[in-house]
Amino acid sequence: MARNRVIYQSEALYVSDTIASTGVSGNRQLDRVQSANYNFAINRQNINQYGELARIDAIVLQPPTVGLDFSYYLTDGTNERALGFYVATGAATSGNFVSGHMTATSGKNFYIVTDSEGTDANSAVASSTTGSAGAVKSIIGIGNGFLSNYKLDVAVGALPKVSVTIEAANMLATGSYYTTGAGYSGITGQNPAINPPDGLSYSSTGVLLPSGQSNLGNSLISALRPGDVTLTFGAITGDGQGTIGDLSQTSNGIHVQSASLDIPLSRTPLQRLGSRFPFARTVDFPVVAKLSVNAVLNEITAENLASVLNLSNGTDLTLTINKAGTATPAMSYVIKNARLDSESFTSSIGSNKTVDFTFSTQIGGPNDIINGIFVSGIGSGSVFSAGAN
After folding, report:
1. Strand pairing category for 158-168 and 65-73
2. Judgement on whether residues 199 and 300 belong to the same structural domain of the protein
């Protein structure tokens, strides 16, 4: 029976370990997804000639632009690991968060699985009545996806949420069905990736995705809460470190209302003659990560802007979100060697006086433990099995 519509109930989002990952162990469902949008655009060169008004052809000169953006509630770092970020278990003191995106790779594949209308994608396993072997569904595969932006938003009255933007090379829509085998059950599909050196498609290669699940992380966190967020500003306390508002989170300090961590990883597609697709998408360096903070102002501390210009030292900022009802950090983001870029005050009749800060740091190399973003999460264990295929 044809579907009348598709809603979030019937969809699930997966990511692969590499573009060559074809088995259950090499593909992973993402947790707590809230939205997923995808698109493509084909750039064509019109061929016109004297003697004819209309074009005689429209040739594709540039590779198609495939985009994917999605958002999810922050949990324990499992999604971040699946996306290729380095998330430590324990203290976030080593291992740059974006180090996995600095190396030359062919990207990752993403799959949007759509189940039958009225069926939960996370419960229609092969052994169930609604998801018996052979039940038809569909898959949108997005091949050679590279992360171009990661953004974390925390705010009073809102659950911490991550937004991700992906640039990819190919999109493939196929039919699918549940299948079972020796010790596994999964969802069949086809590989949407392009082999960068020769531009040949993997579409004839089969892919087996794991059956949908509600909880994939080890900590079983449904969502983190704004009341468990702590933001510390290191040495920036208004005592000559370059800020006028008192940033200590005490009765005399500011009252943080929201914070946004933005890590842009813009990429340049590298092309060459003889290939229709880029042979690589490299990160444009230097990469500058920014932390924006909005707060209700309380006390004003003594500071001279002229002295700020002479400061050469940065500081470490820490954004920690505890597991609900505990003092255990579920996720911790350390922004190392950050500098204050701007400070803006807003005051009007009928509202509290607020202040906005913007801090920035540059992403260092994989072995740089002085600069960049360092993240730890309560989740543990491998996201993909060793030797995943």
Report:
1. antiparallel
2. no
Q: What is the pLDDT of residue 382?
A: 76
Domain residue limits at 25: 8-41+58-73+107-210
Please tell me the distance from the alpha carbon of residue 261 to that of residue 307, in angstroms, as a whole number.
Answer: 27
Q: What is the 3-state secondary structure (H, E, C) of 204-230?
A: CCEEEEECCCCCCCCCCCCCCCHHHEE
Mean pLDDT confidence for 375-380: 87
Q: Distance of alpha carbon 385 from its chain centroid, rounded? A: 21
Cβ-Cβ contacts under 8 Å for 278 (sequence gap 6 or more) = 63, 169, 196, 269, 270, 271
Same domain, 35 and 177: yes
Q: Verify that 192 and 329 share a domain, yes or no.
A: no
The reply to whether 150 falls in a domain is yes
Instruction: Specify whether 164 is located in the same domain as 27.
Output: yes
Residue 288 in this model has a pLDDT that exceeds 90: yes
- Output the domain CATH number for residue 230: 2.30.110
Residue 383 DSSP symbol: S
Lowest-confidence pick of 189-193, 233-237, 261-265: 233-237
Q: State whether 315 and 357 are in the same domain.
A: yes
DSSP for residue 300: B
Considering its fold, how many domains does the chain have in total? 2
Do 118 and 17 fall into the same domain? yes
Q: What is the pLDDT of residues 257-270, one digit of tens each?
A: 999 999 999 888 88
SS3 170: strand
| Cα–Cα distance measured from residue 15 to residue 38, given in angstroms and rounded to the nearest whole number | 14
Residue 334 predicted with pLDDT over 90: yes
Q: Are residues 167 and 240 in the same domain?
A: no
| Single-letter amino acid, residue 169 | A
Question: Rounded CA gap, 104 and 101, in Å?
Answer: 8
Report d(CA 7, CA 13) in Å as an integer: 13
φ and ψ at residue 9, rounded to 5 degrees? -55, -35
